[in-house]
Amino acid sequence: MELGWLLWGAALLLGLHVLTELSAAANFAVRLGFYYLLCVLGSALTAPVCVLVNGGRTVKNMRIIKAVVKTFKYFFGLRFEVKGLENFEVEGPAIIVSNHQSVLDMMGLMEVLPDDCVQVAKKELVYAGPVGLIIYLGGVIFINRKSTDSAKMVMAEVAKTMAAENVKVWVYPEGTRNCTGDLLPFKKGAFHLAVQAQVPVIPVVYSSFTTFYNPKKNLFTSGKIKVEVLPPIETKGLTSDDVSDLTDRCFHIMRETLFKLSGHPGEVKDSS
Ligand SMILES: CCCCCCCC/C=C\CCCCCCCC(=O)SCCNC(=O)CCNC(=O)[C@H](O)C(C)(C)COP(=O)(O)OP(=O)(O)OC[C@H]1O[C@@H](n2cnc3c(N)ncnc32)[C@H](O)[C@@H]1OP(=O)(O)O
Ligand SMILES: CCCCCCCCCCCCCC(=O)OC[C@@H](O)COP(=O)(O)O
What we know:
The protein is α/β, with parallel strands linked by helices. It is built from eight helices and nine strands. The protein has one domain: Glycerol-3-phosphate (1)-acyltransferase (3-Layer(aba) Sandwich), CATH 3.40.1130. A seven-stranded mixed sheet has the order 1-9-6-2-5-3-4, sandwiched between helices. Strands 7-8 form a two-stranded antiparallel ribbon. Helix 1 (2-54) runs parallel beside helix 5 (129-137), helix 2 packs across helix 4 (105-112) and helix 6 runs parallel beside helix 7 (189-197). Ligand 3VV is lined by residues 39, 42-43, 46, 65, 68-69, 100, 106, 119-122, 125, 131, 134-135, 138, 140, 143, 145, 148, 151-152, 155-156, 171-173, 175-176, 187-190, 192.
């Protein structure tokens, strides 16, 4: 008799546990789905505006895209605390490098994006429907990550046009998304580009999302993201022999800043 009740109790607890897990998964899927929906709808509505206002593919469209994307954070209760924006005020072009954690990074990107700045993206994104179209209209540079040679050729061309058109280029040097609270080793393309164009590198670091966003744990709540724009690193006089050193320097400064902003991975830090 008592064993019967015990079994019923255990079944109930298990049921509740399964329900909570399911609702966490559903909640996560709904929130991320809503983000995708915002991106798709936002792009579909913004693309005609870009074409009408600026006539086609140009970096000027980034101002319009930025204004739209900057409203997204309110839907998800995300707050940004930005430091060092004055470090973007360099004379002429620059390469901006930052850490890349998730698709949500587009919000953080647009939160601080300086004028006349295009990003480097994997070419697959051009096929992402309306989002691909808006990225194309914004003047984003597409590279084939599977072919280093063709990516190098595209980047060499960019090095030439940067000065002529006075644009900054934003690169995610990890080359892919990484939401572990640490950095992946940096690819060298961004730093070759900076040395070829003889322009400064400006590192930007976003604090780790792990306290409010973790797809493995179905976690996606509101939260605060700290952003720090670091002082420009000059490359005048550097040659291709210095690229490895430059890459290492940037990596270490950015990793230090990442840990300062959000603690070492695995270590709990209060989110005040
Ligand atoms: C209105 C509503 C709208 C809502 C929607 C929002 C829309 C928002 C709108 C707009 C925002 C758009 C934002 C898009 C964001 C997209 C993010 C991404 O897609 S991230 C993935 C792609 N990005 C990268 O991958 C870049 C970084 N990668 C590189 O730069 C790599 O270096 C690359 C691809 C060039 C090569 O990668 P390797 O995997 O081969 O690795 P390596 O170690 O770098 O290079 C191998 C050898 O080649 C040399 N090398 C590399 N680049 C060189 C170069 N340019 N010249 C000479 N040598 C070079 C290196 O020194 C290395 O040689 P040795 O090991 O040193 O001997
Ligand atoms: C046909 C409809 C498709 C809908 C797609 C909506 C996507 C909206 C997301 C905004 C752009 C996100 C850019 C981004 O973060 O791309 C990921 C790459 O950086 C890194 O790629 P990966 O980690 O190596 O796969």
